[in-house]
Here is the input.
Amino acid sequence: MVRAIDGRRKMKGVLEALRRMYGPRPWQCWGRGVDILVETILSQNTSNANSSAGFRRLRRRFRSWNQVMNAAVEEVEKCIRISGLSRVKAPRIQSILRQIKADQGRIDLEFLKERAAEDAYEYLMRFDGVGPKTANCVLLFSFGMPVFPVDTHIHRIAIRLGLIPEGSSAEEAHELLKEMIEPGDRYEMHILLVEHGRRTCKARSPACERCELVAMCPYGAGRTGR
Ligand code: SF4
Here is the structure.
């Protein structure tokens, strides 16, 4: 594994190479906090297409989060079946909505905007089914906080690049990688690494021969002999 200071230098190079490959990605707000939270829970252990389809069905069937909270769990489950693990995700989503309502008097997370990132993170991590990736996605995509969610693509690429040790946990990966990336670059780095994982550095057969990161990648160097 690289030292933090070397990691920061290396990450700068990674970001420049990814921008050349896929183009820059300026920060955008993806939606309100509750929407992003539910969408991210739906995305756990499934593809993007299936999680988005489940979210769209849920929003078409129910006009508000209050209605989702009060619906029969089987109804919610039916809407999100396409997103997988619906028997786990449906009661989980309803329970989170109930807790937010009990805490805030309404189902809204916008109050987190006023909190420090660490406090907002701790608030979200209290919910069953919310781990570091989900909490950080809400903070980054809804509130523009300088956090760094690590999904399976990013975790795999970081190990291949030698930035974090093989076998590091999700929590360790979040801690180590965040410190290697300038706060203002974290959104763009997240988006570009996920895209890189989907298009080039796939779990099986990564396309190292056409990857601009190969010169700084021990795994790629081993595969290409460069
Ligand atoms: S060189 Fe290969 S393993 Fe390394 S980042 Fe590129 S695609 Fe992934």
Notes: The chain has two domains: 4-26+149-224, 33-141.
